[in-house]
Specification:
CHP02284, DUF2383, Ferritin-like, single chain, mainly alpha, Ferritin
């Protein structure tokens, strides 16, 4: 795969991970539950690590790393705020953050499945894929447990 295509794929992941980082950071400050706030802060930090590492990979190929999130991520974050304002704040954020994890996992799986990815990019994606899967699973389980408790 060309460096240009690799840059494009990694920048997609950077933008979506940045969306998640921003959303988790916001949610951390909005929920009243200290345990949930700490979880959101931890996950925001993980998303930041992903953004930093993938940005370094893009720069190593001579590309320009993405500097912003996506429009879809901004809209999802706005919807999460509205949903949390009119219902159970914690569950509203958890549900929307779990959707955000769906989006990131799908993007990672698509990029990881690209057989033409450069070796360095593949290594970076494969290094973070288990983390992305684990966070997705954690948020999905949390959403379902909260829904069942309601």
């Amino acid at each position: 795969m060309s460096d240009r295509a690799t840059t494009h794929n990694l920048n997609d992941l950077i933008e979506i991970a940045r969306d998640g980082k921003d959303f988790y950071t916001e949610a951390s400050g909005e929920v009243k539950n200290a345990e949930l706030s700490a979880l959101f802060s931890r996950i925001a930090s993980t998303k930041s690590d992903i953004v930093t590492a993938l940005s370094a990979e893009v720069a190593a190929t001579g590309g320009k790393p993405a500097e912003h999130g996506t429009f879809a991520g901004s809209m999802q974050q706005l919807y999460g705020k509205v949903r949390a304002a009119f219902g159970d704040t914690a569950y509203g954020y958890v549900a929307e953050l779990e959707d955000s994890e769906d989006r990131l996992l799908k993007a990672f799986n698509e990029v990881a499945g690209d057989s033409k990815l450069t070796p360095a990019a593949r290594s970076a994606v494969e290094r973070f894929l288990p983390i992305v899967r684990g966070t997705h699973r954690e948020m999905s389980q949390l959403k379902h447990s909260m829904k069942g408790a309601a």
